[in-house]
DNA sequence: TCTACATTTCGAAACATGTCGAATTATCGA
DNA sequence: TCGATAATTCGACATGTTTCGAAATGTAGA
């Protein structure tokens, strides 16, 4: 996942899709913000084939969902993915503290 | 930062260093867990020069701190960095929710 | 000062990634 | 069925990354 987010174009795509339905909110999967592939590429000076390649990488990394809706393909983020990433850096969720430090 | 975390060796190093003093705890910078370069490489089948290269990448990305202590060089994570990463995926900290979703 | 240890720098090789354009596939509407 | 639109696949190329070993640097102790 971090590898996929490590490219500036892919990070931008991910950020565009994550501006709604973040962990801690009450957004459900159905509420998740969606963009078509073309919309996601707007403002990025990138060939359509390159955009497609990046979307595929994000999808393979498990970061985004994709589904055809007519002529377009819609992309969104499953809120559970954001929870997971959030939890990775959150002590309560995933890590045990070890060593001599004072956890309260 | 995500690019730096996107390599398996570097992610492992980062995880070893982040097992203490996570955001939400009361660990101070002085309490941060520290390992020498050699200790960080233990168990990884990797040449010393490669390890050094990865550490440099993590340092350049702003993910780890390094300081010479005698013959060895100690590495640790500034808790502020963990807060920052944590905040990136946390709705309260950094993002505004937009669109038609119902935030409570 | 000499030696051992810890780490970094350098250069080179193998491999992976980002990018494009052209060709292809899928869907909708006339 | 045909054409237009949206997106993907493919092949190619330039650029970056990972890795190593050898040589260099920095530090402590005999």
Q: Which short descriptors sum up this protein?
A:
homodimer; 104 residues; alpha+beta; Arc Repressor Mutant, subunit A; three-stranded antiparallel β-sheet; 5 helices; 40% helix; globular; disordered C terminus; DNA-binding
Structure, explained:
The structure is a homodimer of 104-residue chains. Chain A is an alpha+beta fold and 104 residues long. Chain A has one domain (2-88): Winged helix-like DNA-binding domain superfamily/Winged helix DNA-binding domain (Arc Repressor Mutant, subunit A), CATH 1.10.10. The first copy, chain A, contains 5 helices and 3 strands. Chain A has helices at 2-5, 8-17, 37-41, 48-60, 79-88; strands at residues 35-36, 65-69, 72-76. The first copy, chain A, has a 3-stranded antiparallel beta sheet. In chain A, helix 2 (8-17) packs across helix 4 (48-60). Chain A binds chain B through residues 2-7, 11, 18-27, 31, 33, 82, 85-86, 89-92, 95-104, and chain B through 2-7, 11, 18-27, 31, 33, 82, 85-86, 89-92, 95-104. Chain A binds a DNA duplex (30 and 30 nucleotides) through residues 7, 9, 36-38, 46-57, 68, 70-73.
